[in-house]
Write a structure and sequence with these properties.
The chain is an alpha/beta fold. The chain folds into 2 domains: about 110 residues, Aspartate Aminotransferase, domain 1 (Alpha-Beta Complex), CATH 3.90.1150.10; about 240 residues, 3-Layer(aba) Sandwich (Aspartate Aminotransferase, domain 2). The protein contains 14 helices and 11 strands. It has a 7-stranded mixed β-sheet with strand order 2-8-7-6-5-3-4, with helices on both faces. A 4-stranded mixed β-sheet has the order 1-10-11-9. α6 packs parallel to α7. The structure holds 4'-deoxy-4'-aminopyridoxal-5'-phosphate. 4'-deoxy-4'-aminopyridoxal-5'-phosphate (PMP) binds next to α4. The site of 4'-deoxy-4'-aminopyridoxal-5'-phosphate has 14 residues, from α4. This is 8-amino-7-oxononanoate synthase. InterPro entries: Aminotrans_II_pyridoxalP_BS, Aminotransferase_I/II_large, AON_synthase_class-II, PyrdxlP-dep_Trfase, PyrdxlP-dep_Trfase_major, PyrdxlP-dep_Trfase_small. Its EC number is 2.3.1.47.
Length: about 400
């Protein structure tokens, strides 16, 4: 036998083990009694009978799989219906559904950042946006987290089209991006020098001929939680439907299903249909996932209080943990991040919670760029006050 070509993998595995950073899968039993603050089922819809029935009905009607890519055989009337209702709900002209939020981000970034363009990307962005930047033909400049001035400076260096890319709610700490300031920075990038701050000479020559920068927002954690009735962070910031704003969403968090979408002006969505490789060369979203997402969206529309409840549970969780002396980040949506002193202590803390019946997320390097480990809790609209009490008690006891 020749030497294994994969010895380097063994070396990496040993290094990972030495650093205590090995990750393993833990299959979740169907009848798990754990109180789940680890998943992203923010509105408690993943097991809602109307949502699971939406999936089952769609599978019976359209089949288990989409049978092909969207441009060949994988576009059903169900996909069209979901796109229409999603765009309408979030306040955009058009939507395009893809097989995941990850694929939606790759599609949006690559299709909107051609050769010669500049991508300005927040340092705290989700891995799927980062990978979109890596795949895109444009040049990426990473800027400090949630810093519109840094965005402005970066945009000054552009020589062609530009987009600014940011999560609306950051997945690790649950903090919100300064959306209005980002939009202002994008728009100022298109005004002639001096006009934005009123220092331009009267009578100076007119438009510089530059358009503003596009703003691409990943609203994975905003949809269903932020804004009136959960219409998303772009809606809440008054940016929904703007000609220079495109958002991406996932169907796998607040909608309890699977899949993703890009929302924006109709001509941008048409461009994606023709140019986005993760749309064109990927099998269409499974009908069951589309059916479940559509059922969840309709529930959300009929029960707008679900979004407010998720936010209220997050705030309550934050306030009570902080009162117990834990260091947490004030939540802007449903994600509550609690700091741990070290990766090892984060792991032990999460393990003690699990032993006491509470599932929490544990984020540690290299998943977190700043090297700070935390427990990540997700507030759910369907948590009862008793469950909230239990979660707080388990978290504080397990910390001791
Ligand atoms: N963006 C953000 C901010 C996310 O947190 C996630 C999910 N972890 C995604 C995109 C990817 O979405 P999906 O899971 O639907 O691929």
């Amino acid at each position: 036998m020749p030497r294994s070509p994969f010895e380097w993998i063994e070396e990496q595995a040993r290094a990972r083990a030495r650093a205590g950073l090995v990750r393993t899968l833990r299959p979740r039993p169907a009848d798990s009694a754990l109180l789940d603050l680890a998943g992203n089922d923010y509105l408690g819809l993943a097991r809602h009978p109307e949502v699971t029935e939406g999936a089952a009905r769609a599978a019976r009607t359209w089949g288990a799989g989409a049978t092909g890519s969207r441009l060949v055989s994988g576009s059903t009337e169900l996909h069209a219906e979901l796109e229409l209702e999603l765009a309408e709900f979030c306040g955009f002209e058009a939507a395009l559904v893809l097989s995941s939020g990850y694929a939606a981000n790759l599609a949006a970034v690559t299709a909107l950042a051609p050769h010669g363009s500049l991508i300005v990307s927040d340092a705290g962005n989700h891995a799927s946006l980062i990978d979109g930047c890596r795949l895109a033909r444009g040049t990426t400049q990473v800027v400090a987290h949630a810093d519109p001035d840094a965005v402005r400076k970066a945009l000054d260096t552009r020589t062609g089209p530009a987009i600014v890319v940011s999560d609306t709610v950051f997945s690790v700490d649950g903090d919100a991006a300064p959306l209005r300031a980002l939009a202002a920075a994008c728009r100022e990038a298109g005004t002639p020098p001096g006009e934005a701050d009123g220092t331009r000479e009267p009578g100076a020559s007119g438009a510089s001929g530059r358009s503003g920068a596009g703003l691409l927002l990943d609203d994975a954690h905003g949809l269903g939680v932020v804004g009136e009735g959960g219409r998303g962070a772009a809606w809440a910031a008054g940016l929904a439907g703007a000609p220079d704003v495109v958002t991406t969403v996932t169907l796998s968090k607040s909608l309890g299903s699977q899949g993703g979408a890009v929302l924006g002006p109709a001509h941008v969505i048409d461009h994606l249909v023709n140019a986005a490789r993760t749309f064109i060369f990927d099998t269409g979203l499974a009908p069951a996932a589309a059916g479940a997402a559509l059922a969840a969206l309709r529930l959300l529309r009929g029960e707008p209080q679900r979004a407010a409840r998720a936010r209220a549970v997050a705030t309550a969780l934050y306030e009570r943990l902080t009162a117990e002396g834990l260091e947490a980040v004030r939540p802007d949506a449903a994600v509550v991040s609690v700091r741990a002193p070290s990766p090892e202590q984060a792991l032990r803390w999460a393990a003690r919670c699990r032993a006491a019946g509470l599932a929490v997320g544990c984020f540690r390097p290299p998943s977190v760029p700043d090297g700070v480990s935390r427990l990540r809790l997700t507030a759910r609209a369907d948590l009862t006050d008793e469950q909230l009490d239990r979660a707080v008690n388990v978290l504080t006891e397990a910390r001791r």
